[in-house]
UniProtKB/TrEMBL annotation:
Entry keywords, A to Z: mRNA processing, mRNA splicing, Nucleus, Ribonucleoprotein, RNA-binding, Spliceosome
Organism of origin: Piromyces finnis
InterPro entries registered for this protein in UniProt: Nop_C, Nop_dom, Nop_dom_sf, NOSIC, Prp31, Prp31_C
Pfam families: Nop, Prp31_C
Predominant subcellular localization, coarse grouping: nucleus
Taxonomic classification: Eukaryota, Fungi, Fungi incertae sedis, Chytridiomycota, Chytridiomycota incertae sedis
Protein's name in the database: Nop domain-containing protein
């Protein structure tokens, strides 16, 4: 074989290698898209594993899996265009063209009549709102690409600026500059972070990059900026158009959340037919990692849970506020479906009610009222002793007779007294001998005041000086009476009638 034939064969082999490399790149691109699509199904896989009680020694972390998938997808990729294709995709271009077209057409009252699903902008709004999630994923991929390629230049920058877009802006400003004091980072970073970055750059172990590497990194930064700009345009468009399609829902939870709820439910009409308990969980995803406890995982957290009004609520009241907001969103959806209150007045009223109730939840419980001490009672106290109390106790005291009736002797039959229809036992009344009468204590005997006794005419031992034996009778007039004669007459009378008794003096 001649030299020319060998060169031709080498060229043929080179062409085959390039063709194989092209096919390999295409296959790698397809693998990248498949890996990113598989990330969305990771939650369902975790849920299935939990249902089958699969216990793994190493739990699955969603963030680590996502980082691993992006790292695998970026393996062998030197061009950002080969990994981030959303910026140049036909889907994003069509959505942006429709947004610009509908922005140029002014809204009229005709567009606010009829079902909202028949609105020409409704489909564009839902698709554009869903596209924002894809844009966020694409920005993360670009951030990983820039971080891997710029790490050789400034490896400490990744830990100093963890936010993806701030990191990309800092890389764009720094570029391949050797002296960071000549780079103005104050317009994109806080002053304290700028100072830390400048001090760290003086001791950095990074090496300068080639012009080709710097160009690739800067192109990736420009692509991230373009995606961020498109995302802002989508947010502005959705926010402006949701005020016409669902104004009351947009006022309560925001235009972005309202568009997500309508997209998942299948339209405003379908959303208005869903009860509040199901509206609360629209967009909920299973986030329980295999092998980990589900005690700290929030359940029933959908799009409403991540809305602005719930994010402003303290964590301990978020679930209660979510149920409250879901109920108001259901009412607002039915109002928007009937094309009433297009100015959003009812939505603002519902939002005020929600905010007042959330504020009421956060109020501390009423403090205990401090009661004043009672007024001291300086009046007369209740006497627990004295003559009156002793007399009362004596009147209710148990007599010896009653005590004997309440007692019984062992082995001795008790005497009973029968009445008309009842029988009462006598106890020891007839067995205990003589029952003494109740003896009063002479010390506690009530004594009459001597002055009071004289006033009542009581007798005393001394004979009054006015007493006399002379008596005035109608027969004889003045008669001198003998006391012994009177006693003798009384005795004679008693002997006749009370002959069996003797009179006692």
């Amino acid at each position: 074989m001649s030299l020319a034939d060998e060169l031709i064969a080498d060229l043929d082999d080179l062409g085959e290698d390039e063709l194989e490399e092209t096919e390999e790149n295409k296959n790698n691109d397809d693998d990248l898209l498949n890996d990113l699509d598989d990330l969305d199904d990771l939650d369902d896989l975790n849920e299935e594993n939990n249902s089958q009680n699969i216990n793994t020694d190493k739990p699955i972390d969603l963030e680590e899996e996502k980082e691993m998938a992006i790292k695998v997808a970026l393996t062998g990729k030197d061009d950002v265009q080969s990994i981030a294709k959303l910026a140049s995709s036909k889907q994003l271009k069509d959505i942006m063209e429709k947004i610009e077209y509908f922005k140029s057409i002014p809204r009229t009252e005709y567009h606010n009549t009829g079902p909202v699903e028949e609105d020409p902008e409704y489909d564009t709004i839902v698709k554009a709102n869903n596209m924002t999630a894809d844009i966020d994923d694409e920005i993360l991929i670009i951030h990983k690409y820039i971080r891997d390629h710029y790490q050789a230049r400034f490896p400490e920058l990744e830990s100093l600026i963890p936010q993806p877009m701030n990191y990309i802006r800092a890389v764009k400003e720094i570029g391949d500059a050797q002296d960071l004091t000549q780079v103005d980072l104050r317009k994109i970073l806080p002053s304290e972070i700028v100072m830390i970055v400048a001090v760290t750059a003086t001791t950095s172990i990074g090496k300068p990059l080639s012009k080709t590497e710097i160009k690739k990194v800067l192109d990736a930064c420009d692509m991230a900026f373009k995606l961020e700009s498109d995302e802002k345009k989508i947010f502005e468009y959705v926010e402006s158009r949701m005020s016409f399609i669902a104004p009351n829902i947009s006022i309560i939870v925001g235009s972005s959340t309202a568009a997500k709820l309508m997209g998942v439910a299948g339209g405003l009409t379908a959303l208005s037919k869903i009860p509040a308990c199901n509206v609360q969980v629209l967009g909920a995803t299973k986030k329980t990692n295999t092998g980990l406890s589900a005690a700290g995982v929030q359940r029933h957290t959908g799009f409403i849970y991540y809305s602005d009004i719930i994010n402003r609520t303290p964590p301990e009241y978020k679930m209660k506020a979510t149920r409250l907001v879901a109920a108001k969103v259901t009412l607002a959806a039915r109002i928007d479906r009937s094309r009433e209150s297009m100015d959003g007045s009812i939505g603002r009223k519902l939002l005020e009610e929600v905010e007042k109730k959330i504020e009421k939840m956060q109020e501390p419980p009423p403090s205990k009222t401090i009661k004043a001490l009672p007024i001291p009672d300086d009046g007369p106290k209740k006497r627990r002793g004295g003559k009156r109390v002793r007399r009362m106790k004596e009147s209710y005291a148990v007599t010896e007779l009653r005590k004997a009736q309440n007692r019984m002797s062992f082995g001795v039959q008790e005497d009973e007294v029968s009445g008309i229809d009842s029988t009462e036992g006598l106890g020891l009344i007839r067995q205990s001998g003589k029952i003494r009468a109740f003896q009063n204590d002479p010390r506690t005997k009530i004594k009459l005041n001597p002055k009071r006794q004289r006033m009542m005419g009581g007798s005393s031992g001394a004979t009054s000086g006015l007493s006399s034996s002379i008596a005035f009778t109608p027969v004889q007039g003045i008669e001198l009476e003998n006391p012994e004669t009177a006693q003798q007459k009384l005795k004679e009378i008693s002997d006749r009638y009370f002959s069996g008794f003797k009179s006692k003096k």
